[in-house]
Every structure is written in structure tokens, then in C-alpha cells.
Amino acid sequence: MQSKVLYNQDGHQWIVIGRDPEKDSHVIDTNEYVIINRGHAMLLDPGGIQIFPQVLAELAKYVRMQDIRVIFASHQDPDICSSLAMWLDLNPAIKTYCSWLWTGFVSHFSTGAVITLNPIPDQGMRIRIGDEGPEVEAVPAHYCHSSGNFSLYDPTAGILFSGDIGGALVPDHHASLVVTDFEQHIQYMRGFHLRWMPSTLALRGWTQRVRAIKPRMICPQHGSIFEGEMVGKLLDWLDSLEVGQWKDSAAKTDTRAAA
């Protein structure tokens, strides 16, 4: 897998891990993110069982396993967090967070280690990185696409982790990590959003909350990252969509970008 530092200032870092050229063709490509603050780390959507060794190896370049203090799961899908038990086998002290709605479901990913989850209430909550680090905010994103779903905003870096919102099935690992041509990038997002986002009202609510936050960067779990003017373009495009309906255009488009 490949990794890149997205933000690094005053002991606070954001790193993305993804674009695996050696993954099996049937495995959906995902982005895993880690926030590091003065040696303490928070892992966002740690990924599925099949990519655990690759993610672990790349993460080890930046942080020790014992310094991972928190894991955040945006929702319940296996590509999001089926590797949870493996992380907890290596470091049982990690605090894990996901929506209260999915705690009983995510626990089924256990392969021996007991997965004890800290439930996030529907209205969201603040989560501290490490013992004395800064707080990040779980932002409600319900029905986008999961009924119990959260984004995560880091006010220190001005970065929003959006989960599947803004996700795209990019052609291959050579695709740009950062979106440079929004109109060209739409083709990789459209099919998934039309098919997997069930509520236009919920999607509008999410974009409204995000506009109020004013992030400088939006990082989805699949595809490429939006920064600068591309953040506004993404929000405008999402506001233009009518989702939650069967559409032939969505049915004919490869929607494997996420699930």
C-alpha cells in the first residue's frame, strides 16, 4: 500500500493509506486515515480483514502499535471495520467508537478478542485523541448511506473524514490521490451515490452541516480527496442529486465503489 502525509503542523498529523497496487481485483480499494498528535494516534475506518497486514505495515512507518489509542468506525460495513478484532488482538487498550445502532452488529466481527465498543449517540460527540490530545467531532451523517453513520471533523487540521460520502471507484492505483478535475471525477462517483444514498433529505442535511463547519479538505473512504475549491464543488454536486430512487442510469453504472 501507499501512504501520504496530508497535514503536518505543530506535532499534529493526518496520513492517508491506500492505493494498493497488489490487492486482489475483487477487493474494493479503500482509504485508511490516521491522525497522530504528539505520538498518540487515532485510526479512522481501519479497513477489512483482507488488507489488515498491508495497512499495519504501512502504519508502522509512522506510529507504534501501542500508541494507537482510538479507532473510529463511520458505520458497520466489513470494508470499514471487519479488521477490528485484529487490531485489538495487538493492542487491547484501544478505545473503539461507532454508532450505538451498530455496536451489536460490529461485535460479530470478533475472531477471539472481545470487541467492546463505545457507542456514539445520534447527535454525535467529541472524541479525544490520546489522554491529553485535542478533540475531534463525530458529525451525524445518518442515511448517507448507513442508517447509523458518522463523519469525523478535526478542527485542528480543518479536515473532514466523510466516510462513503464523496466516495469514488477510481480506475486504478495510478489515479490521482487529490481531485484536480472535478467534472472528470464525477463519472467515478455518480453511480454509487445514486444507488447507495437512500435519502435526498438526509444528504442535504449533511451538506448543510458541512457548509457550517467549512472544512478545508474532505477525505472519503474510497477514491480521491477534495481540497480547496474542490470542497465547494463536491458539496454543490451533492446538493444537485436526487437520490433514493431507482434510476436506470445508476443501475447501468458500476456501483462497487463502496457498500
UniProtKB/TrEMBL annotation:
Gene3D superfamilies: Ribonuclease Z/Hydroxyacylglutathione hydrolase-like
One Pfam family named in its UniProt record: ODP
Domain Metallo-beta-lactamase: 29-222
PANTHER family in the record: HYDROLASE, METALLO-BETA-LACTAMASE SUPERFAMILY, METALLO-BETA-LACTAMASE DOMAIN-CONTAINING PROTEIN
Name under which the protein is recorded: Metallo-beta-lactamase domain-containing protein
